[in-house]
Amino acid sequence: MSAPLIDNLQYCNFSPKIFRQLREGGVDAIHVTIAYHESFREMVLNLEQWNRWFEAHPDLIFKGLTGDDVRRAQSENRTAVFFGFQNPSPIEDDIGLIEICHQLGIRFMQLSYNNQSLLATGCYEAEDPGLTRFGKQAVAEMNRVGLVIDMSHSADRSTLEAIDHSARPIAITHANPHWWHPALRNKSDTVLKALTGRGGMLGFSLYPHHLKDGSNCTLDSFCQMIAEAADRYGVDHLGLGSDLCQDQPDAVVEWMRVGRWSKAMDYGEGSASNPGFPPMPDWFRDNRDWGNIRQGLSQTGFAEPEIDGIMGGNWLRFYDENFGPQP
Predict the structure, then answer these.
(1) 191 to each of 138, 172, 298, how far by Cα in Å?
(2) Largest CA distance in the chain
């Protein structure tokens, strides 16, 4: 069987149109965000919506739980959908909910979004005291059940402590290197070396605020960045996590960045003059454009097995090793 195509982070306004585009683009698996600031009960309502979509569109999508579901998706010409949280809000202050969430199908959880959480510090806080006592215990419990630790929005000390404290590899599902584009959300060389040195995965983001030159970033610049990252960290630890927010209304940005914690808009990754979603680069508008990235990686000099790994093979290996209970 050929290597899969996996996008390890999307937050689209999903619809039958997008499900069809996933198939047109040959996307075998996606990791979708089903919680930002939701409580446990609110997260369950999002699961209900996905169950309705799975029931209505069984020819296009189904719920993914293991790496074998990616292989099943390939063989059946469908897309496996894996669930994740961008904030630990759904586990509230109850460590027992970590296992419950895994039983419900959650496979990734960020220990923090942009702010301080009960577990760790987000990248927009002025001070980063690292993992909390609850955070360290949550990491151990996530390791035990097979819920992957994601530090995409976390601050450096918290991320490094999560890497050190975790007995299993962790992920940064959607970010780029800070040395390529100094966005606050992008990751330092120190963090990326520690991440990949312990077997972790980096998913490169296509969200314009994470890209050099933003919406005007060129495909060549993006692929050259991946080539430099492969030299620094090893190609086997690299994948894609587009952070595609297709068809989302600009009002959703407020929920992503603010939730219920503030009455004032936190512009975060945007600015007061650009508070909504920025335009995507013209070479990646939706799920039908993955072929452009494959072609760009080829033109940059990657060998076919390396391209297969970046486009999804590396994530599949990570799924196989980390979605089940601790050995």
Answers:
(1) 21, 10, 27
(2) 51
Let me know if residue 1 belongs to a domain: no
CA dist., res. 108 & res. 167, Å (int):
16
The total number of structural domains in the chain stands at: 1
The answer to whether 178 and 186 have CB atoms below 8 angstroms apart is yes
Q: Tell me the residue range of the domain where 246 lies.
A: 6-322
Structure confidence by residue, pLDDT tens digits, 142-171: 999 999 999 999 999 999 999 999 999 999
Per-residue burial over 45-72, b if 16 or more Cβ lie within 10 Å, else e, is ebbeebeebeeebeebbbebbbbebbbb
Pairing of strands 29-35, 6-10: parallel
86's CB contacts (< 8 A; 6+ apart) are 11, 33, 35, 36, 110, 113, 150, 152, 153
The H-assigned helical ranges of the chain are: 16-24, 40-56, 67-76, 96-103, 133-145, 156-165, 189-197, 219-233, 251-257, 290-300, 304-308, 314-322
CA 243 to chain centre: 7
The DSSP string of 233-280 is H-GGGEEE---B-TT--THHHHHHHTTTT-SS---TTSBTTB-SPPPP
- CATH code of the domain covering residue 109: 3.20.20.140
- 44 CB-contact burial (10 Å; exposed 0-12 / middle 13-18 / buried 19+): middle
Is 327 part of a structural domain of the chain? Answer: no
pTM: 0.96
The answer to whether 97 and 91 are in contact (CB under 8 A) is yes
**Local confidence band at 321 (pLDDT 50, 70, 90 cut-offs):** very high
The answer as to whether 281 is a domain residue is yes
pLDDT digits (tens, 9 = 90+) for 53-84: 999 999 999 999 999 999 999 999 999 999 99
SS3 208: helix
| In a domain? residue 124 | yes
